[in-house]
Amino acid sequence: MNRETTITIAKSVVIILILLAVVFALRAPAADLTILPNEIKGDYVDSSGLPYFSEMDSYYNLRLTEDYADHGYVGDIDLGDGTQKDMHRYAPDGNVINYELGIVYVTNFLHGLVNQFMGSHTVREVAFWTGALISSLAVIPAFIFARRLTNDYGAIAATLIIVLAPNYFAHTFPGFFDTDMFYYIFSLFFIFFFVECIRTDNIVLKVIYAILSIISIGLFSISWTGYIFYVGLMGIFAVAYLIALLIFDTGDDSQSQYSNKLVWLIHQKEFLSIIILLVIGFVGISFFRGIDGALGIFNSLLALLSLQSAARVVGGFPNVLISVAEMQMPNLLGAGMGSAFLANSNGVVNGIGGISVLFAGLTVLYILVSRVFKLRKITGPKRQIKSKPGKADRVSASKKIDDSNKFKLSLGELTSFGETKDEINHTKRLTILYATLFVIWTLITILAVTRGSRFITTIVLPFGLLTGIFIGYATDYIKSKLNNDNWLAFVIILAGALAAYPLTQINLVYGLILLVIIIALGLASIYAIKSKKSASDNSVPIKKYIAIIAIVLALVSPTVCGAYVTAHQVVPGTSDPMWNSMVWINQNTDNSTVITSWWDFGYLFEIAADRQVTFDGGSQSGDRAFWLGQAMTSSDLEYSAGVFRMLDTSGTKAQEALYNYTQDYGKTTDILKEILPMTAENATNTLVNTYHLNNEQANTVVNYTHPENPRPVIFVASSDMLQKAGWWSYFGAWNFTNQSSQNYNYYVPTQQVTVEPGSTGKLPLIQDSGLQVNAVIQRGTGNNSTTAYTEALSTYNNSEIIINGTPYNPLNISNIIVIEDGYLLKNESVGNVENANYTLFLMGEDNVYTPILMDNHLANSMFTQLFLLGGSNQDVFTMVHMENGVSLWQVNFENTAAGGSSNSTSTNQTSR
């Protein structure tokens, strides 16, 4: 290794270490919960003082990790054939674990290290920091890959843009314990070594790079489900690259020397590289995923695409993935003109680092593509003899060797393709290689982003690297071409403004200080410091270095500032009331109890209560979403109890059995809705007499819908479900005939209002597109004199909206419910109001009022009856525990007609 190469490697190591420290330091403040006031911060930390995790998937990963640490395998039952079963999920049968366990192995390894060298710490404490630690290691492949393409400035910028990318950062700070932490590490190594295998002429290195590439994707495959995306990406790239070689006739020899183009292609070293990668890839994937996993790659790719089809129905049931925020089609940009220059998760452009990164990436992409087409016209060197360079311009032998090991897309290479035929051929190959890579990479990730915002993390990689190349171009241009001081000043001022703007959104003073410093240093270096450069002096004036640094800052500032903002705005995904409620279940219910609620908190229920759940964030199926939505929107509490009895004791077996007879999910669900509240005898008779099943078929269905010994069920009602009603009502109202639905909502204000007797108060319920709807609360001085209504105002002039001489209010109320100091005072119609489809629920205590507006379809729903009205005048559900914003309801099957005797006198049916 020559001295020049040694210095380059040493410098790169130092830069990588600094970048590791920087990106981890930016993530660390998330653990401090700085956005929360001290008086409530205690509600968001557990009994050990550790903040609760930031989202629910973390609790699934944590439970598996604790399982592995406790008994050497994940889940609850080791089936003895290399698989395990998880009995905390998917009541009643649980499920066989089919999950990438890299996060489990890595965290347990770190747990061992920490306890060996840093004292005793729990798995939970180590897991809390694992995401931030592992994700920071993405600096290593990001810098290596970028440095292969550009200079140090560009590599540093590309690394920061990638490792601090908003959507990646938002899933990898302390307290976010999910598989995203591995995403950039293995994907970058896989692509980097894949390309290096194609690039090198040395057969031994080809094999080594291929092995390293496949090891990377193999480790990725046991760490993150979406690894298959990159297998598909590089497969498409490989095909496209071979086609490009054919089109541009780029090889060791001419196509005319072979009988046909295909024979020519087979004899090219690039084709050999692809074959080596395919062979080693099959062996490697078979090692990591088994033979079936290797043979099933194509099907896995198809499954990944179908997973993202949010509109797709699942066996006639709605696709619950449409309710997952990350599966929604993202905006191109966040709101506001200034958002284009910020990095956040509000839009695709923001997600890659802002419009400056977009511009830089597209510029380089255009240059690469145009260069490929220019190369098509180049067949040989323009001149064979080149005069000897001057002494000052000569390059040392060691520098030549070092440069030969790099592929820097420098500005000088854009117009010069080489002086010899071999140089031109080498340039053609590399240009086509990287142009094809980045074009395919960019196009595929753009397509992926249309499938959901979760794929914004994929598009960051090509744009981050392209931005690094752009800085390399800019560096070359400024050093060798930009000699006009006025233009240099313009570049510095513009770059300074772009660098300062994101910082002004955090702190205006700091942003302005940064702007002043950049401009002052730049102008001083241009106009105050006069450089005296001799003809033999190759040094670059300081003013040009300031311009280069300003450009780097302009491109990385949005991403760095965005990371800072995210880390200082972290709020845990749960708090003491929910966690303590689960602890109550753990301590006060039988082990066979099933917890049922909407899927969001399922993972937390499993670990905190140590009980099985109806469904969770990884088992949210369309049929269970339908049945839970039905149960919560129905006003018939016996029917709701029947849904829970069926799902939590026999699962969806009744549905499956009945479908075998009807072959129609719409008819199947209609029949089940009819028989679930009935006695077992009446249900059997209905199936036989009305729907013409034979006795054996009817008994099979009824054994599933009316099990003799139903498992105990606790229904969890919480305040967050008010905001989620649009989704659970949507799934509950699913129309199987036209495969569509509609949703119903609660409108909840963000604060409360104090209204003294004899006065009036207002609270905004909704504000959108120039319209604001307020809840107006009026109190008299006598008893039972409180009333309320809604008003619609224009946000432009705060006046009533009049259309065709009539006040316009899309949220007119037809009913009002008033509860004061724990007493129901009103539940009545407000009179003859046109187009009134809402009910206003008003709850007051000690003169402080909270209005909640709800669609009339929800006014008498099970959820409203329990969570808002306290479950009065019914005995199917009993509230057994209550915390702030959380209530637990025991389902009393024995108090229903279906669960009691045939002469049950239950009066819980309110609409059937």
Structure overview:
By secondary structure, this protein is an alpha+beta fold. Helices cover 52% and strands 10% of the residues. The protein is built from 34 helices and 19 strands. The strands form 5 sheets. Strands 7, 8, 14, 15, 16 and 17 form a 6-stranded mixed beta sheet that branches. The longest helix has 29 residues.
What are the main properties of this structure?
single chain, 912 residues, five-stranded mixed beta sheet, globular
Strand percentage, roughly?
5-15%
Secondary structure: number of strands? 19
Mean pLDDT: 88
**DSSP helix count?**
34
Parts with pLDDT < 50 across at least 5 consecutive residues: 308-312, 397-408, 411-415, 901-906
Helix content: 40-55%
Rg calculated over all Cα atoms: 33 Å
Main sheet properties = 6 strands, mixed
| End-to-end distance | 84 Å
Class computed from helices, strands and strand pairing: alpha+beta
Task: Tell me briefly what this model is.
The protein has 912 residues and is an alpha+beta fold. A hairpin with a 5-residue loop joins strand 1 and strand 2 (84-86).
Record the SSE blueprint.
Layout: H1 3-27, H2 38-41, H3 57-71, E1 77-78, E2 84-86, E3 95-96, H4 102-117, H5 123-136, H6 139-149, H7 152-163, H8 166-169, H9 183-199, H10 203-221, H11 227-248, H12 261-266, H13 269-295, H14 297-307, H15 348-352, H16 355-375, H17 397-404, H18 421-449, H19 456-480, H20 485-504, H21 508-528, H22 542-567, H23 576-588, E4 594-596, H24 602-609, E5 612-613, H25 622-633, H26 637-650, H27 653-662, H28 665-675, H29 680-689, H30 695-705, E6 713-718, H31 720-723, H32 725-732, E7 746-747, E8 753-754, E9 760-768, E10 771-778, E11 787-794, E12 802-803, E13 806-807, E14 813-820, E15 823-829, E16 838-845, E17 848-855, H33 856-859, H34 862-868, E18 877-883, E19 886-891
